[in-house]
Amino acid sequence: MLRPIVFQYDSSRAAQAVLWLLHKHGGAMDKLKLVKLVFYADRDHIAKFGRPIAGGPYVAMKHGPVSSKLLNDLAQAAPGAGYPFEARGRRVLALSQVDENELSESDMSVLEAVNAQYGNLDTFRLRDLTHELKAWRKNYPDPKANTSHPLPYEDFFLDLDDDGILKIIRDHQQAMDF
């Protein structure tokens, strides 16, 4: 039996991805929209390059998939908490510039593509799109519930055309386990 795919949360890269997206939207954005954009960026980066940008455990929640560690960071980003961004209610504001040295060229390329595809969408339209994903529907069986369920990285590939990278990721993790 294969063990689940695991990607560690990269708090530095996650923070820079958040700042990158915030600056593309005038320095502030709705938190729900932000976490959806990061989800799509992680999913697309995994599909192309075999690793996420932010990573960490993902969960399926009432409003769609989210990196639970990123959600925790956003919840803790109160004024004076030392984060490069600040959460004020439903809004997240950039407090510093992006350090592009923390992001790879592939990170920025995928963030740019995701922002071009989804960045102009209304928050709730973006949320609704994540509810159409097989990955979310499989792991959040009762849309009326208000809870969270683990969302395995393997399930990201349910909505993608090519799962060839999935075999490469599994082979790599098996080699690392060995």
Rg estimate, integer Å:
16 Å
The outline comes out as globular
Poorly predicted runs are none
Biggest sheet character:
3 strands, antiparallel
Gap between N and C termini, in Å? Answer: 14 Å
Derived structural class: alpha+beta
Strand content: 5-15%
Quick take:
With 178 residues, the protein is α+β, with helices and mostly antiparallel strands. 48% of the residues lie in helices and 12% in strands.
Overall description:
48% of the residues lie in helices and 12% in strands. By secondary structure, the chain is α+β, with helices and mostly antiparallel strands. It has one domain (11-177). Strands 1-5-4 form a three-stranded antiparallel beta sheet. Helix 2 (31-49) packs across helix 5 (123-131). The mean pLDDT is 94.
Could you outline the blueprint of secondary structure elements for this entry?
Layout: H1 11-24, E1 28-30, H2 31-49, E2 58-61, E3 64-67, H3 68-76, E4 85-88, E5 91-94, H4 105-118, H5 123-131, H6 134-139, E6 148-150, H7 164-177
Antiparallel strand pairs: 1-5, 2-3, 2-6, 4-5
Q: Which features does this protein show?
A:
178 residues, alpha+beta, 3-stranded antiparallel beta sheet, 48% helix, globular
